[in-house]
Amino acid sequence: MATIGDVARLAGVSRSTVSYALSGKRAISDQARARVEAAVAELGYTPNAGARALATSQTMVIGLLAEFLEDEFAPAMLQYIQGVSNTAHELGYDILLVTEAEGTRGLKRITDSRMVDGVVLLNVAEDDGRLPVLRAAPQPGALVGLPGDCTGVDVFDLDFEETGRHMLEHLARLGHRELILVSQPEHVELRGGAYVWRLRNAAARAAQARGITLHAVSGASRQPDIGRDLHAALDAHPGATGLILNNEAAAAALPSVMHERGLAAPRDLSVVGRYSAEFASTFSLPYSSVESAPDRLGRMAVRQLVRRIEGEITPDDPYVVRFVSPELVDRGSTGAPPAG
Amino acid sequence: MATIGDVARLAGVSRSTVSYALSGKRAISDQARARVEAAVAELGYTPNAGARALATSQTMVIGLLAEFLEDEFAPAMLQYIQGVSNTAHELGYDILLVTEAEGTRGLKRITDSRMVDGVVLLNVAEDDGRLPVLRAAPQPGALVGLPGDCTGVDVFDLDFEETGRHMLEHLARLGHRELILVSQPEHVELRGGAYVWRLRNAAARAAQARGITLHAVSGASRQPDIGRDLHAALDAHPGATGLILNNEAAAAALPSVMHERGLAAPRDLSVVGRYSAEFASTFSLPYSSVESAPDRLGRMAVRQLVRRIEGEITPDDPYVVRFVSPELVDRGSTGAPPAG
DNA sequence: CTGAAAGCGCTTACAG
DNA sequence: CTGAAAGCGCTTACAG
């Protein structure tokens, strides 16, 4: 490969002139510029990223930590990755994807070795082990998901409390008095998936305030277990007229379950989920849902991260915790409870 | 961050001694090694990846080109990414993920700038525009998907011809005489998805040899269009007793379609698909399927790529085109055609 | 067994 | 407007 020295020689100028001609960081005579450009074109010159990183302390790479946990619903993760990756590319950054099961080690490796200018953490837990590593790192970090302690990082998440309240009140207004909430598996919650209880507690409070019975159950994140869980929940609470789903796998499995039980929404059962429009389309889900906005959250996280990387915001500027408000996309799966 | 110079100073040795102590590339006295190790621990030293890359011409990063095309079924792509990423990490490499719509530009950027030691291309088309770029690059490349011209790259793919033949003969042996094959959308094929016609032509030849009627149709890759396409195909060919699916979206949509038509497999219709066990589980698909082996293909591609990167194989060694043989996973969705 | 030094390919003050 | 040179943080022949 051609180096900047080759270009300089061919153009008959110094290496610094080539560098400045390419970066535009100082004025260059038209003649010099033309000769540099011709030489660059002739040699097919592209600066060596490693050398540039060494000289500038900037890699133009963002680390993306996405753990594919055995017990989580992988397709839901994909949209966050796409949102982050697309936005990063738009802003001139490449993505170093770390999917190791032990995210802490991967995070330490890419920050310590200066492979990245900043980091986006997906799927953040209440007491996420990666956060101490991130705080100790010299690079800034942005999270998708709300941890217990937000110091030193920018945080973006769906407002799960508002989501829980909103879903419950939507069904309450339609006249439902007994509802089932299907959450994520218990181990997701135990591992620190705070959004599970944030949504549930908010829904429970709203239910209590309105005198509504809310049966909170947890469901598996995989087939076929989640199907069994749904049947069990419906068997256990025959009086329930509405279903709230905070579990993507449950949403994907519900159509078969309802077919099997001869139920139609909203005729026999009102259903409202929490997943993205993209997800609804992929899985052909006919239920109204609160948009989880994965692409938007990924985009917000990267934008803020790049502002920090490029010094537009400094560590002295306050770190943000930004919630996306729930928006209910109506797909006609909720209505008045069946008479009687 | 601490540099190698800081470590050397603290340990009271030269920088080369630190480097050699860490790499093990030359003998070191026990005393020196102990002092270096202590200094490394005290300073929390990790070599700077950019500096090392500059000195060694090795980045320990593999580029992964995965385009998320608007008209493709994204969840199917995820498993290839996981296979590639996990294998790369196991072998000591990180992954630079490029998802730009214009893959050619991204590929040129990461190879020209030497950000990567090698490249894996996913979703390779018959006449893939990225291949000329890859062949011109100094880094080796491995493909998942068979292009028209395999020169200069290692290629891994499911044996789609054998798959088509196998699926057809499986149903033929059970006594079926009229079958429908649902392929990918036409534009996937036009864009160069050779696997579509490779499977179809092989199935058609096998059908002809056995005097079986095979209706080849194409189906959308999204909901709800694919549901309509399936209904239309079943309406158009009421005599068909078996369905062959070479379209993930069709497989995901078929349970609803069959419910709507009151059909059960294999009682009314025998069904065989082509997708991974992981996919079957995620979407709760009850159909027997030929395993598409995304994790295995990703793993094979990375293994071979790393062999080339590390010089275990050179450009003089022949490039391989390796097909994974189809294996039918029986989920009980095929049987004898309904009597009459 | 060890150190001083060259070199990887850039960027950017410094001097003119 | 331009060039010579220092420096980024490593690795690795070279010399002892």
Protein model, in words:
The structure is a homodimer of 340-residue chains. The radius of gyration of chain A is 25 Å and the shape is elongated. In chain A, the strands form two sheets. A six-stranded parallel beta sheet of chain A has the order 2-1-3-4-5-11, with helices on both faces. A six-stranded mixed beta sheet of chain A has the order 7-6-8-9-10-12, with helices on both faces. The first copy, chain A, has three domains: 4-47, no CATH class; 61-158 and 294-324, Rossmann fold (3-Layer(aba) Sandwich); 160-291, Rossmann fold (3-Layer(aba) Sandwich), CATH 3.40.50.2300. In chain A, strand 8, helix 12 and strand 9 form a beta-alpha-beta unit. With 340 residues, chain A is of the alpha/beta class. Chain A contains 14 helices and twelve strands. At the A-B interface, helix 4, helix 5, strand 2, helix 6 and helix 12 of A face helix 4, helix 5, strand 2, helix 6 and helix 12 of B. Chain A binds a DNA duplex (16 and 16 nucleotides) through helix 2 and helix 4.
Question: Could you name the key traits of this structure?
Answer:
homodimer, 340 residues, alpha/beta, 6-stranded parallel sheet, DNA-binding
List the helices and strands and how they pair.
Two copies of one chain form a homodimer.
Chain A: H1 4-11, H2 15-23, H3 30-43, H4 49-56, E1 61-65, H5 74-90, E2 94-98, H6 103-112, E3 118-121, H7 130-136, E4 141-144, E5 154-158, H8 160-173, E6 178-183, H9 186-191, H10 194-210, E7 213-218, H11 225-236, E8 242-245, H12 248-261, E9 270-274, H13 277-282, E10 288-290, H14 294-309, E11 321-324, E12 328-329
Parallel strand pairs in A: 1-2, 1-3, 3-4, 4-5, 5-11, 6-7, 6-8, 8-9, 9-10
Antiparallel strand pairs in A: 10-12
Chain A binds a DNA duplex (16 and 16 nucleotides) through residues 3-5, 13-17, 19-20, 23, 25-29, 32, 47-57.
